[in-house]
């Protein structure tokens, strides 16, 4: 098996370059994940840079572009990728080194949507009072609370590539919608007005790259369309 990795170290390289590695196919089991191959390659070449942590598809740290699609290497089987695997860093982010990218703008956009519950102040100061929801109200949050902030969705979005400083990106808009539909949050109108802009929610063109790229099977595109609908129909 040939693994071609696009490498780049800004301290030494003027531009990215492809480096080819070879791994004996007989050493790859059917359940071998791509991350394991990368770990073997780093044993051969300690200079190879990539992130990983939980190795269970929970932390979201090992997002990368593999054969043209964004994925998490720790939950991506190696064998189905073929005899030649092309790996590069997540598109749309500055490269720190090799497969490691600077996600500062991604996290800033996420922070800007205020991804935390803003409930009734009286309830917040009363530690004896719970923020209750019915099972039906809680069910509305399914499909958004599972996001692990791996950035695979935002990194697959052309609108985010072009204007990452203005367009929040699918992950942030998914979070924005999650709190808009939360029955316990009292800032719904403020949240909708914040995203009511041609460069925010309405910058999404619904091409659904984000949904295709999500390793957790979420549907950011559908959430963004729901957010747009809520904005258009918000009380005046």
TrEMBL record:
Q: Where is the 4Fe-4S ferredoxin-type domain?
A: 137-167
UniProt keywords (A-Z) are: 2Fe-2S, 3Fe-4S, 4Fe-4S, Electron transport, Iron, Iron-sulfur, Metal-binding, Oxidoreductase, Transport, Tricarboxylic acid cycle
Listed EC numbers: 1.3.5.1
> What's the domain of life for this entry?
Bacteria
An example GO BP is:
respiratory electron transport chain
Cofactor(s), names only, from the UniProt record? [3Fe-4S] cluster; [4Fe-4S] cluster; [2Fe-2S] cluster
Q: Which Pfam families does this entry report, sorted A to Z?
A: Fer2_3, Fer4_17
> InterPro entries, alphabetically?
2Fe-2S_ferredoxin-like_sf, 4Fe4S_Fe-S-bd, 4Fe4S_Fe_S_CS, Beta-grasp_dom_sf, Helical_ferredxn, SDH/FRD_Iron-Sulfur, Succ_DH/fum_Rdtase_Fe-S, Succ_DH/fum_Rdtase_N
Class in the EC hierarchy, top level: oxidoreductase
What stretches pass through the bilayer? none
Query: Which pathway does this polypeptide act in?
Result: Carbohydrate metabolism; tricarboxylic acid cycle; fumarate from succinate (bacterial route): step 1/1
Q: Which reaction does it catalyse?
A: a quinone + succinate = fumarate + a quinol
What GO MF terms are annotated? 2 iron, 2 sulfur cluster binding; 3 iron, 4 sulfur cluster binding; 4 iron, 4 sulfur cluster binding; electron transfer activity; metal ion binding; succinate dehydrogenase (quinone) activity
Query: Is the Transferase keyword given for this protein?
Result: no
UniProt similarity note: Belongs to the succinate dehydrogenase/fumarate reductase iron-sulfur protein family.
What protein name applies here? Succinate dehydrogenase iron-sulfur subunit
The species this protein belongs to is Thiosulfatimonas sediminis
């Amino acid at each position: 098996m040939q693994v071609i990795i696009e490498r780049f170290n800004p301290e030494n390289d003027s531009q990215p370059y492809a480096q080819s590695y070879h791994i004996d196919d007989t050493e790859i089991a059917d359940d071998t994940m791509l991350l394991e191959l990368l770990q073997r390659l780093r044993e051969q070449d300690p200079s190879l840079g990539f992130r990983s942590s939980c190795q269970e598809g929970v932390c979201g740290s090992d997002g990368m572009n593999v054969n043209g699609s964004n994925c998490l290497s720790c939950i991506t089987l190696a064998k189905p990728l073929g005899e030649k695997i092309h790996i590069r860093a997540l598109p749309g982010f500055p490269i720190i080194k090799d497969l490691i990218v600077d996600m500062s703008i991604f996290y800033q956009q996420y922070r800007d949507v205020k991804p935390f519950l803003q409930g009734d102040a009286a309830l917040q100061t009363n530690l004896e009072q719970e923020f209750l929801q019915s099972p039906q109200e809680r069910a509305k949050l399914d499909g958004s609370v599972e996001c692990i902030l791996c950035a695979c969705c935002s990194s697959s979005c052309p609108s985010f590539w072009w204007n990452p400083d203005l367009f929040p990106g699918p992950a942030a808009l998914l979070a924005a919608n999650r709190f808009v539909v939360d029955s316990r949050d009292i800032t719904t109108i403020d949240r909708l007005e914040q995203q009511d802009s041609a460069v925010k929610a309405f910058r999404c063109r619904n091409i659904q790259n984000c949904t295709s790229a999500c390793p957790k099977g979420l549907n950011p595109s559908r959430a963004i369309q729901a957010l747009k609908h809520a904005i258009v129909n918000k009380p005046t």
